[in-house]
Design goal:
By secondary structure, the protein is mainly alpha-helical. It has five domains: 99 residues; 49 residues; 108 residues, K Homology domain, type 1 (Ribosomal Protein S8, Chain: A, domain 1, 2-Layer Sandwich); 106 residues, Hypothetical protein af1432 (Orthogonal Bundle), CATH 1.10.3210.10; 85 residues, Alpha-Beta Plaits. 70% of the residues lie in helices and 7% in strands. A three-stranded antiparallel beta sheet has the order 1-3-2, with helices on one face. The longest helix is centred in the first third of the chain and has 139 residues. The chain starts with a helix and ends in a 9-residue tail after the last strand.
Length: 512
């Protein structure tokens, strides 16, 4: 009985399970069909959208293509019209050329006819001329060729006589006028460029306020004076002259360095050997800048442009150089102005003449080991710094040490002579004195180990400073003897020359 219930329950469960499965499948199929139908609808919509987009794109591309085709067709039509218009113009030109050719042919025929008539007339003229010549020959008793030769000889003799007389008159007039014109130009030039002729000496006076400052400048046992003389190469004379110290040196640059250094030391108040060396070095640098500025200012004042910077520096150094007692920069400016005026009077280029006049003595301020006259050395410098050939030749030939090839060369030569010939402009003695002192310094500097050499006491003493690392005490002693012997053998000088060799050893340490 129980088994029957169990089987009945199992059978009912199986029937219920079968019914559930059937119902679930029917429901799933219905959902699947709905999803499929929805997907098909969406696919159809997407398809329709893509078809519409493709049609729109096609229409757009077609419209762009049609537009390009229309533009191309318009351009082709325009070109075709231009070609037709050009073709019409060419046809008109061809017809015009045809008409002109026809006119030329007709004119050519007329010209040929006239030429034939002219030839006939010429033949008739020649026949008549020959007939007349025969009649003249028979009357004159000589042939036409003989008469022509006789006439030519007579004309030659007459022309030669008249030409010689004209040449003689012209030469005499040229000589007379040339002399008058040259005198006029020189006199006018000198009058228009009148300048000072004051001569600088070899001593500079440095004013001081009191004897206390003089004592500080001298220093303990004269150490400050010695340090200043060693650093600048200038002899400092401290005597009984009130309120003044004398700075003596043949080189104006050294005197200026010493003067400016003393001025700064006195203002600063700190005067000792280390400070002196520092100030001298600083002032030397400032003076180099001032030399460059002087050169630039001189070029601007004279209206000279485009000079190499090294030439400008040499022009600035002329301020501290004298030529036979005449300031070299003042002399060069004067020569430049005289050259420009003379060139203008002669109808030449005044700017080129002024440039050559300013540069004519740059060889005197050049520091070079070459043994050349200053004119040739100046020409070499000008050529090195790309000056024009006529400027180089004018510089090199202003003492006639080079052949003159430029038209402005004789002008610079004359201008230099005019400037130097002014009353009181030059003194020969100072120039020879400076050359002698410079020769003594160069002789001492030629020895190895010598760092500086200064001629002081008007050339009666030569101080030679040597490097402690290169020269020993024994070598320093021998060096003074050797220099004294060479000066005695090779140089001419009045009195005696004292040679002092200074060897100083320094030890420097820095505390950090």
């Amino acid at each position: 009985m129980i088994l029957f219930y169990v089987l009945a329950a199992l059978g009912g469960a199986a029937v219920a399970l079968a019914i559930y499965i059937a119902v679930t499948r029917a429901t799933a199929r219905g959902r699947a069909d709905a999803i499929i139908e929805k997907a098909q609808l969406e696919a159809e919509n997407i398809k329709q959208q893509k078809i519409l987009q493709a049609k729109e794109k096609f229409l757009q591309l077609k419209e762009e293509h049609d537009q390009k085709v229309r533009e191309t067709n318009n351009e082709l039509r325009e070109r075709e019209n231009n070609i037709k218009s050009r073709e019409g113009q060419l046809r008109e030109q061809a017809s015009e050329l045809g008409r002109k050719q026809h006119d030329l042919d007709s004119q050519k025929g007329q010209v040929n006819a006239l030429k034939n008539k002219l030839d006939a007339k010429m033949e008739e003229c020649e026949r008549l001329t020959a007939q007349v010549n025969k009649e003249l020959e028979s009357v004159a008793g000589m042939t036409a060729e003989e008469a022509k030769k006789a006439l030519v000889e007579n004309l030659k003799a007459e022309a030669r006589t008249e030409a010689q007389a004209y040449i003689n008159d012209t030469m005499d007039e040229a000589r007379l006028n040339a002399a008058k014109e040259a005198k006029r130009i020189v006199i006018n030039t000198i009058q228009r460029t009148a300048t000072e002729t004051a001569i600088e000496n070899a001593v500079t006076t440095f004013p001081i306020d009191s004897d206390e400052i003089k004592g500080r400048i001298i220093g303990r046992e004269g150490r400050n004076i010695r340090a200043l003389e060693a650093a600048t190469g200038v002899e400092i004379v401290v005597d009984d002259t009130p309120d003044a110290i004398l700075l003596s040196a043949f080189d104006p640059v050294r005197r200026e360095v010493a003067r400016l250094s003393l001025h700064q030391l006195v203002i600063d108040g700190r005067i000792h050997p280390a400070r002196i060396e520092e100030v001298v070095a600083k002032v030397s640098k400032q003076l180099e800048d001032e030399i460059l500025e002087t050169g630039k200012r001189t070029c601007i004042d004279l209206g000279i442009h485009g000079l190499n910077i090294e030439l400008v520096k040499l022009i600035g150094r002329m301020k501290y150089r004298s030529s036979y007692g005449q300031n070299l920069l003042q002399h060069s400016r004067e020569v430049a102005n005289i050259s420009a005026i003379m060139a203008a009077e002669l109808g030449l280029n005044p700017k080129a003449a002024k440039r050559a006049g300013l540069l004519h003595d740059i060889g005197k301020v050049c520091v070079s080991d070459e043994e050349l006259p200053h004119a040739l050395l100046g020409a070499k410098l000008a050529e090195q710094y790309k000056e024009r050939p006529e400027i180089v030749n004018a510089i090199g030939s202003h003492h006639e040490e080079m052949e003159m090839t430029s038209i402005i060369s004789p002008i610079v030569l004359v201008a230099d002579a005019i400037s130097g010939a002014r009353p009181g402009a030059r003194r020969e003695v100072i120039e020879s004195y400076i050359k002698r002192l410079k020769g003594m310094e160069d002789l001492a500097a030629s020895y190895p180990g010598v760092t500086k050499s200064y001629a002081i006491q008007a050339g009666r003493e030569l101080r030679v400073i040597v490097g402690a690392e290169e020269v020993s005490d024994e070598q320093a002693a021998r060096l003074s003897v050797d220099i004294a012997q060479r000066i005695q053998d090779e140089m001419t000088y009045p009195g005696q020359v004292k040679i002092t060799v200074i060897r100083e050893t320094r030890s420097v340490a820095i505390a950090k």
